[in-house]
Amino acid sequence: MTNNPFSSEIFSSIWSQCFGKEREEIRGVSGLQFYKGLSGVYINTGKTHTKGVHYALENDIELKGKTCLIYDVPTYFKCPSTPVTTSQVRLLKIRQYPGFLIELGQFTTLNEYLAQQFKKSSRYKLNKYFRRLKQCFDIESTMYTGELPQEEYDSIFRKFRELLEKRFQEKGEHNNNLDESEWNFYQQVAYPMIKNGKAGLFVIADKGEPIAITLTYFNEDIIFDAITVFDTDYSKFHLGSINIMMLIEWGINNKFKILDFSKGYFDYKVRWATQQYDFEYHILYDPKSPISQLRAHGIASFFRLKQYLREKNLNLFWNKLIFLFRKKERESSSKTGAGDSTIVFKDSEIKDSSNLVKIDGYHPQVIRLFFEFLYLNNEDAKNVSVFHISNGQYLFQGTTTDKIGSVN
């Protein structure tokens, strides 16, 4: 774990610059840098923006009254690797978020993984979604890592933010990654780490336009899934599941041993993961210093309370509350086909469409109907013509099927 990306100079220095923290070393704690918080506690650089840090304790560790807080230590890192035996330091571990990962090293192909993880009926559905997406759209997947033109990187990141904003607008929740300071950090840190092979942008595109994007970090054999999003217009095709399948396949083909979904409980993580673990916060303190002891046990009590409230799902309520306060305008059009509306198709009797207005099937006004037509009839998007009739009705002409669709 010596090549942990979150301990790299690039990650640490850019994080410190973006959040205005002055770095310093703590003698005897290797693999991490710290900054002094307002409470006098020394906190690891990266704080909660890492997806798992690794560190080691050396024999000469001596805190001299200091208290150190280390965020996000995955239990499967088995960190620190040696027990704390010196009388100069004590260690507290507080369980926080659950973590989930796929043990890619157990499999040689995606199909082998699917056969172990899912029942036959589920595999059939996943493969059907995969085929449908490729039949209906011009789909390509790319892992951007290594050399990448700045202009192309900027374009992908603009689309990345756009898709995240759309996704959480529809969910009616606040996402802290979209806060200006946090997004600025991710955008600044990802590019140099991509160029040196420590990060990547996994992109699924339709006709060259990104429809699913995942920011990943790498060490020698682990892929860390940092932020992922997909275009919800493609939900009918289960694009979220297909994105995971394609990332698993890329990871296996490139000899990675682990795909780490990182912290936080989500149903999809439980479904796809082969192993669950815990994220811990580690507190190092000086047992000979009453102030250091007081700080350490106070911090531990605070985070145990936070974990209790999190287990009661109060964090979800809080995110929704923040969203309501921060969103100044709620556009009814933000959800395409909101409410209990139903899509209806009927056979077309129109023989001549030359007098109708032809429109782009990807236009927001019609995209939901367009994608439903493609999914139901196995048509290829590039071979379908869409015409506006009247009163919210549209004519869809494919290679084998003609339908009139509307939303009721």
From TrEMBL:
Phylogenetic lineage: Bacteria, Pseudomonadati, Bacteroidota, Flavobacteriia, Flavobacteriales
Organism per entry: Flagellimonas iocasae
Domain BioF2-like acetyltransferase: start-end pairs: 121-269
Pfam families listed in its UniProt record: Acetyltransf_6
Protein name: GNAT family N-acetyltransferase
Signal peptide start and end residues: none
